[in-house]
Amino acid sequence: TQSILLKERPKKTPQTSNFEFKEEEVKSPKENEVLLKTIYVSVDPYLRGRMRDEESYIEPFQIGKPITSAIIAKVEKSECENLKEGDYVLGHLAWKEYQIAKGENLQKVDSNQAKLSAYLGILGMTGLTAYFGLTDIGQPKEGETVLVSGAAGSVGSAVGQIAKIYGCKTIGIAGSDEKIKLIKEKFNYDEGINYKTTENMKEAISKAASNGVDVYFDNVGGKILDATLQNINRNGRVINCGAISQYNKEETVTGPRVEGILIKKSVKMQGFTVRNDYKENFAEGTKQLAKWLQEGKLKYEETVREGFENIPQAFIDLFSGENKGKMVVKVADE
Ligand code: NDP
């Protein structure tokens, strides 16, 4: 069976040559273990951070060791009481076609309740990130204006719809006209800004947000954050969810670079990691997201790549915005 290892730490934008494929033998599960067949692999921007040799909220990947991420797998053989052959599970697993895992680290998922891949997106980490980041940190109120960057991505597409459920005006920023059409038509965004074709982001945001920005859900950082802060309202909230525009940079930017704005306008800016700050609330969050899905209030999009060998490229393509909604790789048939 194949496994994907980190060959070397990427410099700037990751390349397929940073990864290495290795052939391994498939073992048999011991007591409390299962043999898993990988079905869907989640590729996520935060994995880029783990490829740096830096202390963070999660330990760095080691050279010569497999990359890990959220994976949906099928139980092939079980030595676990609560898991049987044919069950589907979600786990934080290695990029391997087959692997042995401890049953206690796996969560059973129901393929009748939702598409299996949805447990990597809207009913998984990115849906929960959107939900807790917006509602708990953003505290959106009816009639307020919520601006979201990375709006056509997995987190951002959910944020806009949840803000709409809360009665807000929503403005999304994304990197192509096709994505702007998608976020308005499918994800209920009132306004959209293509940051790649817009020269003056400060003015464009000011025009779209005629009453200013009350809540900014930031997935990208950098210049878009600067331009937003120049449009932020008094008592505004900035949710520092991610900063993908900075992940491939070798130098750390310091900020906030729009000097004095947070002070003058009493703005609150808060970061979080969903796994550390909201782990206790995951069940409640998933229940709410599933309810909205069922009621048709929440929609999602996926970009599904096929084939184990294409996992590294799918990950790399996140940084050029090749995905709409959640990027997943389908490795084997269900
Ligand atoms: P997405 O599905 O949003 O994919 C990434 C998107 O980022 C791309 O599609 C691309 O869209 C956009 N992008 C890439 N480079 C740039 C750039 N230089 N400037 C602006 N936009 C860029 O990924 P996720 O939904 O999984 O993650 C979104 C953000 O949320 C990331 O920053 C991630 O790190 C963060 N995150 C944080 C969590 C937390 O707990 N705090 C948990 C999960 C995610 P486009 O075409 O519009 O450029």
Automatic annotation (TrEMBL):
Residues 1-23 are annotated as: Disordered. The keyword Transmembrane does not apply. The keyword Oxidoreductase applies. Keywords: Oxidoreductase. It comes from the Bacteria. Residues 15-329 form the Enoyl reductase (ER) domain. It holds the Pfam family ADH_N_2. This is Enoyl reductase (ER) domain-containing protein. It comes from Mesonia maritima.
